[in-house]
């Protein structure tokens, strides 16, 4: 008889029938909608809720965790935010605010029974903004916080994109991109073509496009442009002035975060890694993880560094070694 593995034992759980998937009802000013979550594993001490980027992307960008977290005994929960592919996608822009998304995360937390004895919140890119904002509002519920590949000041992010990363493109390419941005010619297929070739493969995921993992190509295929453009703009080359996140800045509030926090940056990131290292120093219990070969999706292009650093943080906090 084989020994039962408690980590993968879903017997007696309501979500055994669905393989860990839960459609969680969310109350909003526009009514009730459902968001998709999927629990992997059982660990009553380490439960990681994953906040994807975008806004409007999907949980799929984290799927490489399947190759590592089960071996480490880490419970993790995939989650598509409202408006994202696997969740309900209400029309209109009224619900796409930071405050409403924070309230959504809190409703998800309560439904899943996460609490300060086990609740780790991990957000990447826009998910990092959401994770920070959740911590400012509800850090009493957290055991630990992970902010992956996100700066605490959008103006600084834009400055880094335009003054540091932009000039790394061939001059004629940058000039053409900037001209299209000046003319708001974002629907021009040339705009995406140039950025994918000269910016995304250098600073979003450092692989030729044809070698990008299927999980990432699906993430981009499933991106909700209505949410993404409204809050971010048309691309990862900075946040445009008309986007609602354009003025977001929490740098002056970082010292209010009391829970153990890991910030993650990549040497080739769309975000300034020095800023993310600085963020860790501003927090009361901060640690910085640098991915020397990584870009914005360091979990893929510097996977060993990224995964080992995240696992170490989770276990250090759980064992009181932080």
From TrEMBL:
Which GO CC terms are listed, alphabetically?
Answer: membrane
Q: Does the keyword Disulfide bond apply?
A: no
UniProt KW keywords: Hydrolase
Q: Which GO terms describe its biological process?
A: proteolysis
Recorded GO terms, molecular function?
peptidase activity
Alphabetical list of SUPFAM superfamilies matching this protein: alpha/beta-Hydrolases
Residues at the catalytic site: 125 (nucleophile), 269, 296 (proton donor)
Q: Which residues form the AB hydrolase-1 domain?
A: 48-302
**Is Nucleus one of the keywords UniProt gives this record?**
no
The similarity comment for this entry is: Belongs to the peptidase S33 family.
Full protein name: Proline iminopeptidase
């Amino acid at each position: 008889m084989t020994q039962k593995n408690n980590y993968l034992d879903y017997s007696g759980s309501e979500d055994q029938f669905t393989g860990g998937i839960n459609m969680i009802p969310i109350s909003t000013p526009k009514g009730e909608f459902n968001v998709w979550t999927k629990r992997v594993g059982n660990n009553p001490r380490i439960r990681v809720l994953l906040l994807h980027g975008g806004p409007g992307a999907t949980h799929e960008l984290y799927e490489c965790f399947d190759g590592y977290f089960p071996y480490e005994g880490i419970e993790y929960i995939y989650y598509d935010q409202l408006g994202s592919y696997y969740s309900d996608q209400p029309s209109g822009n009224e619900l796409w605010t930071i405050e409403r998304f924070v309230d959504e995360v809190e409703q998800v937390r309560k439904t899943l029974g996460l609490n300060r004895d086990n609740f780790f919140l991990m957000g990447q890119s826009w998910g990092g903004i959401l994770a920070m904002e959740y911590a400012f509002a509800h850090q009493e519920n957290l055991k630990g916080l992970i902010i992956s590949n996100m700066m605490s000041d959008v103006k600084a992010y834009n400055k880094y994109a335009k003054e540091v990363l932009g000039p790394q493109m061939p001059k004629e390419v940058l000039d053409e991109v900037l001209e299209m941005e000046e003319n708001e010619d974002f629907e021009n297929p040339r705009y995406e073509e140039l950025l994918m070739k000269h910016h995304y493969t250098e600073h979003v995921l450092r692989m030729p496009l044809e070698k990008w993992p299927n999980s990432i190509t699906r993430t981009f295929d499933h991106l909700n442009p209505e949410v993404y453009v409204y809050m971010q703009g048309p691309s990862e080359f900075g946040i445009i002035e008309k986007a609602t996140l354009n003025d977001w800045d929490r740098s002056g509030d970082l010292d209010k975060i009391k829970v153990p926090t890991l910030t993650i940056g990549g040497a080739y990131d769309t975000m300034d890694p020095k800023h993310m290292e600085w963020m860790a120093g501003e927090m009361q219990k901060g640690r910085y993880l640098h991915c020397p070969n990584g870009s914005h999706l360091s979990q893929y292009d510097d996977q060993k560094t990224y995964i080992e650093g995240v696992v170490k943080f989770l276990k250090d906090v759980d064992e009181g070694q932080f």
